[in-house]
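Re: the multi-chain job from yesterday

Posting the exact lines I submitted so nobody has to dig through the queue logs.
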Amino acid sequence: MARLLLWDIDGTLVNAGNVAAEVFDQAFEEVTGIRPAERVRMSGKTDPQIATEYLEMYGLVDQSELLERIMELLARNLANQQALIAEHGEVLPGVAELLVHLSCEDSVTQSLLTGNILPNAYVKLAAFGIDHYFDYEIGAYGSDDIDRTKLVPIALERSRRLRDRHYAPDDVWIIGDSENDLRCARAGGVRCLLVATGRSSVVELRGFGGEVVVESLRDVDAILEVLAR
Ligand SMILES: [Mg+2]
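And the result, structure tokens for all chains:
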């Protein structure tokens, strides 16, 4: 049976360390002249949503050109920090093995559904050498919509238009680490595997209503079995 797997990045495939948060601070400061005094919670949010929350913090939310410039700098600055991401971050347990197994399955297509803007999604995965497993063109990103719950239909439309692949809702899995990943899956009517390697524990993820929740992706055989259901 055909499967489309839409992976989240941060907390699910990789832990990119604090580099991305620092890059946000830098971009915000370069554009507004203000060094953010505190950080917004980033988990499960889109990059433009995070930047908007920073702008709100300083009463600058009406200035959409600021948002655009922050996004540009975010992409440029993160690309410059790729070596630091590799140094301070990690691929999460089981991920490397799982990606290899799934890439050998002809019926499985792997792409991304992430709050990262597309260039940053690529930079983070390339930092760890796991960038070649994903069909980027059919993914959906923070650069496509500030509202993450709008992203599943975007990915499905791209699959149809660019690959002539028509997936039934049960053939599509979101794999993520946050309540927002679950919200995306619900909004898009697709399935959701949640993994507690990000900011939320198994208990919290179950509390959000996640039906398939695992501690980590370490047990590759068990995960493959879940995704084939
Ligand atoms: Mg995440």
